[in-house]
Every structure is written in C-alpha cells, then in structure tokens.
Design brief:
Layout lengths: L4 H9 L17 E7 L3 H12 L6 E4 L15 E2 L9 H12 L1 H5 L10 E5 L2 H16 L5 E4 H7 L14 E5 L3 E2 L2 H14 L3 E3 L4 E7 L2 E7 L2 E10 L5 H6 L7 E13 L7 E4 L4 E5 L4 E12 L7 H14 L8 E12 L5 E4 L5 E5 L9 H14 L13 H4 L16
Parallel strand pairs: 1-2, 1-11, 2-8, 4-13, 11-18
Antiparallel strand pairs: 3-7, 4-6, 5-6, 9-10, 10-11, 12-15, 12-16, 13-14, 14-15, 17-18
C-alpha cells in the first residue's frame, strides 16, 4: 500500500476499512544472509538501506520487545549537524541530508520539521569556540550562521537577557536543523524494510551467539537458533550486555538520560534552543508540549528511569534561560539507556569475530544519526568496508590514540 493524500481522503469516506498492517509479523526462517540484532531506529534503518540500496533482501531484524519501544521512542527528537571535528561533521551532515529526503524515500510522514536550532553564546570565549565550530561546519558543506545579541533579541524576545550571571551575547544557528517525530521514524523504517522483503521479528530475544573456529554462524534466540552469514549488532544501551555474549568487553558504559515534556502550551518556541551556560535544550512539539532534557544521571545503569537531582538541575537550566516557563506543569518524564563511548563518538566496525559487526557508542547523538548510521552500517555489512563518512568510527582508534573527542572531556563517558 502506498500512502498519499488521496488515499487518506478515500479511506475517510469509506470508514477507514481499507488500511492494512504497516509491516508483516513473520516467524523467523532457519537462515538469513544478514541478521540485525535490535529493532530500534539504527537497526531498522540498516535493514532498509541493506535491502533498498545494496539489494540484500534475505535479511532479518530481531527485536526482543516491540518496534519503537527503546531509545528511538525515548528521546527529544532533535536533528542537527553542528559538529566541529572532521571525524564527526561529514557524517552528521550526511545524516541531515538523509533526513531531508526521508519522507519521500519511505513514503511515510515522519513529521520532519526543519525549524532550526540555536546554540546560545554567553561569553567571549564561547563566541570564539562557536565561530570555529561554524567555520568547520561550512567547510564540510553544512549551513551555519553567527548571530549577535540584537538578532537573538529579535528572534527570541522571551529569553532572559537581563541575567548578569548568564548574559546572552549571541548564538550559532543552523537553520536546517530541527525535529522529527521519533515514533514515526521507527514505523517508517520498519515499513520500508518490510516492503523490500526484510523479516521483522518482534518479541524474540537474542540469548547468545554461535561461534565456531572464530566465525559467527548465527544467533541463539528465544525462538530457537537462527543461522546467518553475517550478524550486525545495533542495540544501543544494551551493547555491553549483548556483545559480552560473544566474549567481548566494549569501551562503552551504559547511562540513563532523562527527557521531559510539559503540558500543552500555545506556540512559543520557533525552533530548538540550547542553553550555553548549562546543559539544557528545548523545543516545542506539534501538540504544544515543551520537550527538553539535560545531563546524564551520571552513574551506570540499565534502568529506563531517572532520579530527582537531574530533574531539578534540568528545570533550573530551563528557568535560567526562560523564567516564563516556571508556571508550566511538567506532564511526564522518561529515560533512555545511552551507550556512552570513551571519547563520546560512535563505533561502526567489524569485530575480531568473523561475520560479527557492531554499531554503537552513540552517546547523546543517536537519534540525529539514525539515517546515516543505518546507511553506513548497511554499507559495511554489504561491502566489508567502511562508508567514506564513517572511516574514523573504528575500534582501533582507542589503541592508536585517534580519539574523536568532540567535547574535550577525555575518556570519561559520563562527562560527554
């Protein structure tokens, strides 16, 4: 079924009786060419591009829960490519370009809204740093615009310009950034992969790998053994636990990152705003709620819930930036499990086990990276070579000292 405005009108007139399931719910076959562990955004995107771009149709995605139940549905929906380092900026710019064509590619309304993102500047040193970042973005083909205080006042008159502790001196804008409906990304990629012959197997937990003579032959699951020529792992915050089943210890820690949404408000935020004097970022959803977040909780966990000290810290950041939100009621909160790498940048690489591949370590950047992550992982699985924009995302960078430390925080994952 192909979606269109005409189809919506037709089904409305017919009582919506013609809609079918967005994807099949098949039983697993005994063997696949490629198995993707993880039915989140990255796993589903990998399967979609494997089938559509690289012609790999005998593919399965194995998900222990339901599609959209993990981090892909537990984030603040922001997309951007405002990175600094050469190892990151081309990759995230590639991802943003894929976002721009995603709905046409998938024939699915993912609610891509390029409303822009504004990183506020609060000191002269920060202006210098953001000027450098903006130049790096432009050199890599992205858009960047440095704004002064008067321009910020004109666009965002409701911000707290009178706080002597955190004066707003300008901002770095990326007009092509914005937000996307996170659930729709999972559903769209699942539908796209299914239409190209991929089996999406839900409620099927991978319990181990079958490895013989250094080669991965497939996976043990709650539905029995499933053989494969290649196995790719894309399970985000569960990366450490999953790869330990193959005898691997990853340079990754799992931390919880909380996100929040307020009650519905009238339109007030024209785009995404980040507070440069603290870790706080906010946008407004199409339903009117303010969607915002901040720092990690700062301790290792696999729990999809957070603690009150971070709630307080994030709300303080919001009040410092926009005191007007003090009267808004917090509607709900949730947590996602972040796979935090040692340098704050991801890994897309082959492992030492023949036929076993890994995609993880996305830290805060997982959602915005979804299309490029899937595309580059599909390229690696299909060609056994890294995609040109992902050549730096290798395991051996930690041995060779080729760190991609975007924030300059060293090897402390909880600080990235």
């Amino acid at each position: 079924m192909r979606y269109s405005g005409f189809k919506v009108i037709r089904e409305a007139l017919r009582g919506h009786k013609g809609w079918g399931p967005a994807w099949r719910d098949p039983e697993p076959k005994s063997h696949y060419d490629i198995i993707i562990i993880g039915g989140g955004g990255h796993g589903l995107a990998t399967a979609h591009y494997l089938a559509k771009i690289y012609g790999q149709r005998n593919v399965a995605v194995i998900e222990k829960g339901w599609i959209g139940g993990g981090n892909v549905g537990r984030n603040t929906t922001i997309i951007r490519s405002n990175y600094l380092l050469d190892g990151n900026e081309p990759f995230y710019e590639f991802s943003l370009k894929l976002w721009e064509g995603l709905e046409q590619d998938l024939n699915y309304n993912a609610m891509v809204s390029q409303r822009g993102i504004m990183n506020l500047i609060h000191s002269d040193a920060q202006r210098d740093a953001f000027t450098r970042r903006g130049n790096a973005m432009i050199l890599n083909g992205a858009d960047a615009e440095l704004l002064d205080e008067a321009q910020i006042r004109a666009e965002y008159p409701f911000l707290n310009f009178n706080d002597a502790r955190f004066p707003i001196k300008g901002g770095l804008a990326q007009r092509r950034g914005g937000t996307v409906r996170h659930d729709a990304v999972a559903w769209g990629y699942a539908r796209g992969a299914d239409q190209n012959g991929v089996d999406i197997i839900q409620n099927c937990e991978v319990t181990g790998f079958r490895i013989e003579d250094g080669k991965c032959l497939g996976v043990e699951t709650s539905k029995g053994f499933i053989g494969a020529n290649k196995v790719g792992c894309a399970v985000a915050g569960n990366s450490g636990r999953m790869m330990s089943k193959a005898g691997m210890r990853l340079p990754i820690e799992s931390h919880v990152l909380q996100a929040f949404v307020s009650e519905g408000l009238k339109p007030v935020l024209p785009g995404v705003i980040t507070f440069g004097a603290g870790h706080f970022y906010v946008s407004q959803s199409d339903k009117g709620g303010l969607v915002f977040g901040g720092d990690l909780d700062g301790y290792n966990t696999y729990a999809q819930r957070g603690n009150l000290p971070v709630v307080e810290d994030v709300c303080e950041g919001g009040m410092g930036l926009m005191p007007m939100i003090g009267r808004a009621r917090l509607l709900r909160m949730w947590g996602g499990i972040m796979d935090m790498s040692m340098d704050g940048s991801p890994i897309i690489d082959r492992t030492h086990v023949d036929g076993l591949y890994f995609n993880g370590g996305w830290c805060y950047g997982g959602f915005k990276a979804t299309p490029a992550s899937g595309y580059c992982f599909a390229h690696l699985l299909a060609n056994d070579a890294p995609h040109p924009v992902a050549t730096a995302y290798r395991f051996d960078r930690f041995d060779k000292g080729r760190m991609i430390d975007e924030k300059g925080m060293g090897n402390q994952p909880n600080l990235h």
